[in-house]
Amino acid sequence: MKFLLVFDFDHTIIDENSDTWIVKCAPEKKLPNGLRNSYRPGHWTEYMGRVFVYLGDNGVKEDEMKRTMTTIPFTAGMVDLLGFIGENKELFDCIIVSDSNTVFIDWILKAADFHKVFDEVFTNPAAFSSTGYLTVQNFHAHHCAKCPKNLCKKKVLKEFLDKQLERGVSYTKIVYIGDGGNDLCPVMFLRKDDVAMPREGYILEKKISQLAKDLRPVECSVLVWSSAFDIMSYLKLLIKE
């Protein structure tokens, strides 16, 4: 009996968006209008690439970025939840599927000593260039019309499950914890024994509600959370069953 926990990162594990938080490093803590207005829907990674060039051009170095990123608050109760999962790793496999990037997630998890809780992190690859600029790439290519160009979370989840099956690992239940519009695609992939946990008041919850109103409800159970203590209560019930 093993459960798979799938976490989004921004506004789920941390209570902010890591990509917009980095703007605190910019001169006057803001971006010029031309750069801010250059974002095109579905092309977030390219936009962040331009933001990182701007920061690099303004002399923002890796250590300053790291200091800034590790001040992001975790969502209420998340520290306790991750501690609980860490103590029960024999029951839970745990992955992150996020539109952030490897550098930010790595910094934040390591600073709080949570990197061991997660078996794998699927996010946009990032690295510092020889000139000290942070660069980011799209996670993969895909053909899903519903998702941003750089990342279809359903594809990531499906490929992970296929790989685990090849290793002889299957899950009693998948619990998907997220908040954003790009979490709907993987949630629609879940089956009736699985559970979607959308964050209360965020886009994912609204989209799931709208599907139910349109009489096209998701197949899995839906449990809304407002703090990570709600998630922990549910996981405690799950392992008692």
Description:
- With 241 residues, the chain is of the alpha/beta class.
- It has a domain at 3-15 and 74-123 and 141-239: Rossmann fold, CATH 3.40.50.
- It is 39% helix and 16% strand.
- The chain has ten helices and eight strands.
- It has helices spanning 18-21, 33-36, 44-57, 62-69, 78-87, 102-111, 153-166, 184-189, 203-213, 228-240, and strands at residues 3-7, 92-101, 120-124, 126-128, 134-136, 173-178, 195-198, 221-222.
- The strands form two sheets. Strands 3-2-1-6-7-8 form a six-stranded parallel sheet.
Topology at a glance:
Blueprint: E1 3-7, H1 18-21, H2 33-36, H3 44-57, H4 62-69, H5 78-87, E2 92-101, H6 102-111, E3 120-124, E4 126-128, E5 134-136, H7 153-166, E6 173-178, H8 184-189, E7 195-198, H9 203-213, E8 221-222, H10 228-240
Parallel strand pairs: 1-2, 1-6, 2-3, 6-7, 7-8
Antiparallel strand pairs: 4-5
Helix pairs in contact: 5-10
Using the 3D structure, state the CATH architecture of the domain at 3-15 and 74-123 and 141-239: 3-Layer(aba) Sandwich
Uncertain spans? none
Which structural class should the secondary elements be placed in? alpha/beta
Gyration radius, in Å: 18 Å
Active site: 8 (nucleophile), 10 (proton donor)
Cofactor: Mg(2+)
Protein name: PHOP2 phosphatase
GO molecular function, one term: metal ion binding
